Amino acid sequence: MKSKKYDNLAKIYDLIDLPLEWKISKFRKKLLKGLHGKVLEIGLGTGKNLKHYPSDVSLDAVDASQGMLSIAEKRNKDARLHRMDAEKLSFNDNSFDAVVCTLSLCSIEKPLNALREMKRVMKKNGKILLIEHVRSRNKAISFFQKIASPVWKLMFGCSLDRDTGKSIEKVGLSIESEKSIFLGDVFRVFICRK
Ligand SMILES: C[S@@+](CC[C@H](N)C(=O)[O-])C[C@H]1O[C@@H](n2cnc3c(N)ncnc32)[C@H](O)[C@@H]1O
């Protein structure tokens, strides 16, 4: 589990992410508002989702980076935060009513492993809620994403051109809904089931 990049970025992350957050925050709120029961968040980062969880949610949240978790801790009220690899979760099978992951599948080294783990720890009737930036269906945009991705990854630790919809299906999850929310079809919300 690599964490150095985000440990280094942690103190300035919220600042550099400000323009995007201005657009995305309302989608976080909408995504999380109906949740209840036991919820797991993957790649918590600095904890931007924390304020949007309903008060009756029992939340566990994991991140690889202690630097990011330390910032999230300041925003935390009563979630259990864990430094843990999303590709190797230490939770039991069928433990959570919902698994949330926002803007993190782009930076997890092997997203298929993380999706398999999300599926494993989610209860049979649970759901996985994702906000991700993904490879566009528009050829010109996806070409730009492909050439810009290596530099972006070096700077910010995330890939710009992942086909996350395909990965979701590859691990045997079904996409209940998929909605484009920002920059054409680049930023999308996925709701997935077992
Ligand atoms: C771009 S940030 C997104 C943070 C947050 N989810 C948000 O919506 O603002 C990606 C986060 O994923 C975490 N991450 C990357 N690889 C991980 C892994 N293998 N296991 C757990 N967290 C990981 C990083 O440490 C970072 O905090």
Class by helix and strand content?
Answer: alpha/beta
The distinct bound ligands, ions and cofactors come out as: S-adenosylmethionine
Strand content: 25-35%
Q: Helix count, per DSSP? A: 6
Work out the number of β strands: 7
> What's the N-to-C terminus distance?
26 Å
The chain-level mean pLDDT equals 97
What is the domain total for the residues?
1
Short description, anyone?
The chain is an alpha/beta fold.
What is the strand and helix layout of this fold?
Blueprint: H1 4-16, H2 18-32, E1 37-42, E2 57-63, H3 66-75, E3 80-83, E4 96-102, H4 111-121, E5 122-133, H5 139-156, H6 164-170, E6 174-182, E7 187-193
Parallel strand pairs: 1-2, 1-4, 2-3, 4-5
Antiparallel strand pairs: 5-7, 6-7
Helix pairs in contact: 1-3
The structure holds S-adenosylmethionine.
For the structure shown, list the relevant keywords.
Rossmann fold, 27% strand
Description:
It contains six helices and seven strands. With 194 residues, it is of the alpha/beta class. The protein has a single domain, classed as Vaccinia Virus protein VP39 (Rossmann fold), CATH 3.40.50. It has a seven-stranded mixed beta sheet with strand order 3-2-1-4-5-7-6, sandwiched between helices. Helix 1 (4-16) packs across helix 3. 38% of the residues are buried. The mean pLDDT is 97. S-adenosylmethionine binds at residues 1, 3, 6, 43-45, 48, 62-65, 68, 85-87, 102-104, 107-108, 158.
